[in-house]
Structures are given as structure tokens and as C-alpha cells.
């Protein structure tokens, strides 16, 4: 079986590796190299690194809708996609049997951020959908689904790893016996959407309950990080936990700076465990509190920064 694999981030890596072990992967399609970090170093995607390691040709079209004939000419048996990052054109999916590995229980959370949204919404489970590619985003028939629980400590990073491993096992199961998994149409009335995370999605709303804020922080971990403001300073919050102190008064107020950093919410104070001031590295709160001058007791977080 000849497969063209299309994927880009870490989520795609275990899936690609498992396909390489069991099938002939004739081409890997991934996003173009991108500048990363403060020094803007041009960096390959994790999927490209795996392809090069295994001696597989890599194809990196800037816009796949304008540059896909190469894939058709190879006459693969399947295209398998997993978080590729671009919508496949009709001319491609109409000519090659295309399957997508999507990190949600469709029709829930169509789009590019299903893992983050499932954590933010305090869902108890999520899963993988093996589905037929259609031009409309994540709308194709579903062949195969499996679910896993979302734990109270799961972050986007930890849940991504779990779902990636699950997806790598499920795609083999499907390809080994596709007749066992007939296509099932999605119920459009139950469709929800999880669009890519924006800057506004990172911002913490201190008017919410502590459990909702804590889940929001976990959903933004490790990247891009949840954001709050103090004056003209941006603070990224990476870890927090609900305290047993009932919040009194205005949400978003610093209520403790003595060895702990506590912020009031709509119900209980939230203890900040790890954060990153603007221009500095991420650090544990105990290290931040040692000599910091950014926060004062009873400061109100959430002032908008002038960018």
C-alpha cells in the first residue's frame, strides 16, 4: 500500500512513524519551514525531520490549492492527513482516496483547535475520528471513533500526546481492514467548531469561576500560554490551582503575595504556580516573588495593554 502522508506538528509524528513501520510512505507533505524564536531561526516541522530521518521525499507547497499535481501523479492508494494545516483542494481529494485523523469526537469541535477547546469547556472525554476528507472543514463521513477520558490535570501538551498515540493505532486498524468500518454521516445539527487559537483566546477572564480559569490555563499550556495584564506588563500564566479560600470582592485582584500568589475569581482564589513576565523566562511563582516589583497587594489584573 502506497501512502502520501500530510501533517506538520508534534501530533502528527507518532502517526507518521507508525505508518512508516507498516506501509510504504512515498511522500511526506508538510508546511514550509518557518522562523522560530527571538532570533527567527528558520526551522523545519517535526514531521519533516522524521521524513528526512527515514529518507522519504518531502514536499512543502506554500499553498496546496495551487500546487498538488505532484501528489496525484504519484498515484498513491491513500492520502492520510493529520493536522496538516491547510484545507485540501477539491482537485486533490476528488482524485485520491483521502483520510483524515481528527482529534475530536466529530461532529464536535471541527477545526484546528479541538484539543484546546475540549479542555477549556471542561469536557470529560475526547477522542479520535478517522474520517473521509471533504472540501468543507471536517465534515466528511466518519469511519471509526474511539474516546479517552480527559483528566483534571491534562494540558493541551499531555492530551495531544495521548491522542496522537491513539490516532497512530487507529489508522493502522482502519487501513488493515477498511471494510470493517463503513462510513457514517455526521449529524450536522450537532456540529460545533474549534477554530485556531487567537491572541484573544489566550486572555484570562477573571470574572469566571476558578475551575474554568484553571482549565483555560491548562488549555493554553505549553503554548501559547494564557495571558493576563498588570498595568503595561503582560504576564503569561502556565500553571495554577484552585485554593480553598473563598473570593471576596472584585475578581482579578491580587489577594496574597506572601510566598504565594493568589488572585480572586468569581468563587475561589486561584493560586498561580508558574508564570512568565514579559521579556523573561518562565519561572515558578516562588522564584518570581523573590524581589519582583511588578505586582503589589490588591493590584487589579486585566488592564488592556497598548500594543
Question: What descriptors fit this protein?
Answer:
single chain, about 300 residues, alpha/beta, Rossmann fold, Methionyl-tRNA Fmet Formyltransferase, Chain A, domain 2, 2 domains, seven-stranded mixed β-sheet, about 25% helix, about 25% strand
How does this structure look, described?
The chain is an alpha/beta fold and 307 residues long. The protein has 2 domains: 2-190, Formyl transferase, N-terminal domain (Rossmann fold, 3-Layer(aba) Sandwich); 199-289, Formyl transferase, C-terminal domain (Methionyl-tRNA Fmet Formyltransferase, Chain A, domain 2), CATH 3.10.25.10. The protein is 24% helix and 27% strand. The chain contains 9 helices and 15 strands. It has helices spanning 13-22, 46-53, 69-73, 90-93, 114-120, 156-176, 199-202, 210-219, 285-289; strands at residues 2-7, 24-29, 34-36, 41-43, 58-59, 78-82, 98-102, 125-132, 142-149, 226-230, 233-246, 254-256, 261-263, 268-277, 283-284. The strands form 3 sheets. A 7-stranded mixed sheet has the order 5-2-1-6-7-8-9. β3 and β4 form a beta hairpin. α1 runs parallel beside α6 and α5 runs antiparallel to α8 (210-219). The relative contact order is 0.10. The mean pLDDT is 94.
Amino acid at each position: 500500500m502506497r501512502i502520501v502522508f500530510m501533517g506538520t506538528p508534534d501530533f502528527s509524528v507518532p502517526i507518521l512513524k507508525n505508518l512508516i513501520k507498516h506501509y510504504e510512505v512515498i511522500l511526506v507533505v508538510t508546511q514550509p519551514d518557518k522562523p522560530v524564536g527571538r532570533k527567527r531561526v528558520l526551522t523545519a516541522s517535526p514531521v519533516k525531520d522524521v521524513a528526512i530521518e527515514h529518507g522519504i521525499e518531502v514536499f512543502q507547497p506554500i499553498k496546496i490549492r495551487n500546487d498538488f499535481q505532484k501528489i496525484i501523479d504519484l498515484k498513491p492508494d491513500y492520502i492520510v492527513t493529520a493536522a496538516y494545516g491547510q484545507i485540501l483542494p477539491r482537485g486533490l481529494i476528488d482524485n485520491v482516496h483521502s483520510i483524515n485523523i481528527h482529534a475530536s469526537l466529530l461532529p464536535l469541535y471541527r477545526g484546528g483547535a479541538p484539543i484546546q477547546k475540549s479542555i477549556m469547556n471542561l469536557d470529560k472525554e475526547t477522542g479520535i475520528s478517522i474520517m473521509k476528507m471533504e472540501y468543507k472543514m471536517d465534515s466528511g463521513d466518519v469511519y471509526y471513533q474511539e474516546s479517552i477520558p480527559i483528566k483534571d490535570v491534562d494540558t493541551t501538551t499531555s492530551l495531544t500526546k495521548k491522542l496522537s498515540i491513539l490516532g497512530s493505532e487507529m489508522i493502522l486498524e482502519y487501513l488493515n481492514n477498511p471494510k470493517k468500518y463503513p462510513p457514517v454521516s455526521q449529524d450536522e445539527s450537532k456540529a460545533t467548531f474549534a477554530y485556531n487559537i487567537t491572541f484573544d483566546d489566550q486572555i484570562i477572564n477573571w470574572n469566571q469561576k476558578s475551575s474554568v480559569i484553571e482549565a483555560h490555563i491548562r488549555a493554553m499550556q505549553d503554548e501559547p500560554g494564557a495571558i493576563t495584564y498588570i498595568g503595561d506588563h503582560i504576564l503569561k500564566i502556565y500553571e495554577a490551582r484552585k485554593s480553598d479560600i473563598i473570593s471576596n470582592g472584585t475578581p482579578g485582584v491580587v489577594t496574597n503575595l506572601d510566598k504565594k500568589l493568589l488572585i480572586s475569581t468569581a468563587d475561589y482564589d486561584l493560586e498561580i504556580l508558574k508564570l512568565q513576565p514579559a521579556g523573561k523566562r518562565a519561572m515558578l511563582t516562588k522564584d518570581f516573588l523573590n524581589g519582583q516589583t511588578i505586582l503589589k497587594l490588591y493590584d487589579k489584573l486585566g488592564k488592556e495593554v497598548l500594543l
